[in-house]
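Why run this: before we spend reagent on co-expression, it is cheaper to look at a predicted model of the complex and decide which construct boundaries make sense. The entries below are exactly what would go into the expression plan.
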Amino acid sequence: MFRVILIVGDGMADRPVKELGGRTPLEVAYKPHINELARNSVLGIWDPISPGVRPGSDTSHLSLFGYDPRRYYSGRGPFEALGVGADIKPGDVALRGNFATVDDDLIVLDRRAGRTLPENQELVKYLNDNIGFVDGVEVKFYSATEHRVAVVLRGFALSSDISDTDPHEVRAKVLSSKPLSNDENAVRTADIVNKLTLMTYKLLKGHPINEARVKKGLPPANIILFRGAGSISYIPKLQEREDIIVNRCLAVSATAMIKGVCRLVGFEVVTPSGATGGVDTNVISKAEEVLKAYRNGYDFIYFHLKGTDAASHDGNARAKIEMIEKLDRAVGHLLSNLDLTSTVLAITSDHTTPTSVKDHTGDPVPVMIYSPELIGDGISDFSERSARKGSLSRIRGSDLMYTILDYANRVNKFGA
Amino acid sequence: MFRVILIVGDGMADRPVKELGGRTPLEVAYKPHINELARNSVLGIWDPISPGVRPGSDTSHLSLFGYDPRRYYSGRGPFEALGVGADIKPGDVALRGNFATVDDDLIVLDRRAGRTLPENQELVKYLNDNIGFVDGVEVKFYSATEHRVAVVLRGFALSSDISDTDPHEVRAKVLSSKPLSNDENAVRTADIVNKLTLMTYKLLKGHPINEARVKKGLPPANIILFRGAGSISYIPKLQEREDIIVNRCLAVSATAMIKGVCRLVGFEVVTPSGATGGVDTNVISKAEEVLKAYRNGYDFIYFHLKGTDAASHDGNARAKIEMIEKLDRAVGHLLSNLDLTSTVLAITSDHTTPTSVKDHTGDPVPVMIYSPELIGDGISDFSERSARKGSLSRIRGSDLMYTILDYANRVNKFGA
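The model came back. Tokens follow.
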């Protein structure tokens, strides 16, 4: 069995960029180490979900790790909560929430409490300090961007089969959450969410922060509206899966959502100092963490670089090229410190984020897999274009994980 | 409609072999007939299950014949029984078993009765002669390698949803099989398996073979421990399927497991004299059987060659090359005796068995399909590498069977 290092440039794949003369950032970037490895690798293109379907970072990562997202993805609530660093277990119910403004009759005046809410974290801490439990169920709020929060309910016999309290329009009254089935657990959970809604109102309406906001002419953040209840179905950890053989898994990432998904499927997670998730991230310190894990005997190491996606969402092709060149230097650092006779190394992107679109698209992404047991395709450039000619051809979804692990001799036989 | 001959070199596909200068046995082998046919064929690569997933011989053959193994494969019990020549029907429950050594309190002293058990067949015959039925359910034991057996239960209202009697450790007591659901049939089947376990103990403990073994200082084979209960779900025979048109199907093979799967899906099976399943097999006599069936009007003929896999499991690249060259001569013999204006001929491998790994891997395998109605790809060499450039591209699972039958005009329309 070989050890595996999987390297992902988040949103690294692109479409031809006009200002680059119709080439992509990956084609333009100076990346001698990646190209040298490419020459000895098999190349191909990979559809993170299926052709044309635009992946989220959550669904594409489930897929990347060999979990069919159509089976295991359970809605935005729990994954948004993962994205803000929540710890979620099967059985928990997670909801998305907004700080909002209501009047004394609970009529919604502003669904986003003005949208700008620098006091978000402070208010979330206040709620957590003063609620804790509702009817024996543990309640934990997590602060997100602007007016957004996530909440996780943990306890026995909960169900996410409940409706929103968010009326999704202004001048409407806050809704009562209702069970969407006859399930007792849903009846109970809806009741808890309704109680929780009133508690947020009672705690927030007279809070000094809101008094100050009103004085400044800003809408008070005096209630939380809930929507998108979901729970995570049982996901077997990588180590528990009978079809593959991986034991010690480590992920190096600075991105909350990715770290959440990684933990969910059984990775230990480390964020090295200087790793920011942005274009200013320290890539070499990430490579150092990878090497440390490699020396310590981890058999599956995931190296995630967010900066390429951040540059793409900004529509900044130049910054993206720079990130890819940083990644190349990190790959070079790895290559000179790894034993390539017993290591499988794969490089890909979790989805395409064209700098022209500034968002994820459903295009296939290039992938390259180096294995000591394979003769490479001899393609000495790694890009969206060159990978189309590779011998891996076009594979999809969780096929990639199995293909990588197969070349590392870590897939168990299906059948006899 | 054309007639179809499907030729499989078991485990024929390989990875680059160091001692062959990085080429594969298929690349190195002298195979003028296969290559001549390749030039007029369409080529491609095929994933027996899906990319990266390592197939067993059973699952890959289900797939090869157009049956999704994720739907039809029902665990090792029944397929292991098929592998030792058992006749299994839907509704039967099959279990794997070990001859084991227990003391008077049914504490397991040796789960394998010393592992070496040349008396296996004789003891199995004794059990079959003296048991026959338990509670109206027919019981038949089949001898397997070393200490292993398979048992098939046949009768109404059986269920494989039961636990093992094998405690899977020594110094533990033989377990009681328990129903794993509330299903009445499971309760009844567990009860039968428990009675059967005690019967094997009563019959075996005083058997002269065991008395002789004890005298020689060998552990007596005085009970059978059962595990892995499974049953085969209903599998429509090829002839019964409404999506394809095949009538008379013949398989030429010398391998018990393959013959079992072939029978299960509707093939008549023949093992010509001199066919051994090993590297010493007489390939020309197999080709003769194919030609006989062809002249007798069979419309789907399967030609299975095991020797390539046997050589691979031994890690013997030279023997593998020799087997491929034998196969080539058999193909030559076929080509000079077939009417190629009305015959579709496909050559592939059921999975990759790299001589470096000595076991099946999940790599894609090359496939070539000759049809009188197709213009070939003009690729005059059939190998793992060349097939990547073929026009079939990369297909998976049961797609191959449909593709072959489509080129023989034997697929019914889906829709109007």
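Residues 184-205 of chain A form the longest helix (22 residues). The longest strand of chain A covers residues 93-102. Bring this page to Monday's planning discussion.
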